[in-house]
Amino acid sequence: YQLIAVVPAAGIGSRMQADKPKQYLEIQGKTILAHTLGVLFAYPAISEIIVAVAPNDPYLPQLKFDNAEKIRFVHGGATRAESVLNGLHHINAKQRCRVLVHDAARPCLTHQDLDRLLQIDDDNGAILAIPATDTIKRADAAQQIHHTEDRAGLWLAQTPQYFRADLLQNALEQALAQGLAVTDEASAMEFAGFRPHLVPGRSDNLKITRPEDLALAEFYLNRKNT
Ligand code: CTP
Ligand code: MG
């Protein structure tokens, strides 16, 4: 089968509070998006990368990417799920394709992470995730602790998330049609009756979300390049 990466990059980065969407902020003189795409194109098994960006995005045309022939830019949507679904719509011969959906905002992904994830060969698919290490509190309406969740068996979902392209497209279409809250691809697959595998990831594959995440991502990217 063909392995295609779909990269949702159409968000506005509201929690980052920067003057532009966070995927266009620079680390070591290179945008976060370019770092992320660099990790993916350097992975030989990936034949194509489809990037979903905001329509009329003013930042993208100013950028140049290495290996641009492997990348296709398509329009994203109002939610992450719609951005991913639109990316999937641009894949031909879906029954013979597997997709790796990976956040533009996770530039510190390593090839070892990908190697581990791709070992799962199963229609349920698989995601990288890490067992929760902090104690998890459920809040009440007054933002006081209602109770403490049992941490055992709780995992934090990361990306990439790895599925058969046809199954994922059906699952996302169904979930969106039913108005379900789809915050990652696995949740759509779960609604469709699949049981995706949890593959242990690493905490350095962080999603850059808040301003303080930038320094940490820079540290990890530096470490990788030395
Ligand atoms: N994303 C997308 N389309 C959307 C919303 C999000 O492609 N309509 C992408 C983001 O660009 C990001 C990834 O999904 O690469 C993960 O989302 P998140 O970290 O929440 O990014 P934002 O939605 O941009 O940030 P925020 O929620 O803080 O506004
Ligand atoms: Mg968001």
TrEMBL record:
One BP term from GO: isopentenyl diphosphate biosynthetic process, methylerythritol 4-phosphate pathway
UniProt-annotated site: Transition state stabilizer, residues: 15, 22
Nucleus recorded as keyword: no
Gene3D superfamilies linked: Spore Coat Polysaccharide Biosynthesis Protein SpsA, Chain A
Any one Gene Ontology molecular-function term assigned to this protein's record: 2-C-methyl-D-erythritol 4-phosphate cytidylyltransferase activity
EC number per UniProt: 2.7.7.60
Chain's role: Catalyzes the formation of 4-diphosphocytidyl-2-C-methyl-D-erythritol from CTP and 2-C-methyl-D-erythritol 4-phosphate (MEP).
Similarity comment: Belongs to the IspD/TarI cytidylyltransferase family. IspD subfamily.
UniProt protein name: 2-C-methyl-D-erythritol 4-phosphate cytidylyltransferase
Gene: ispD
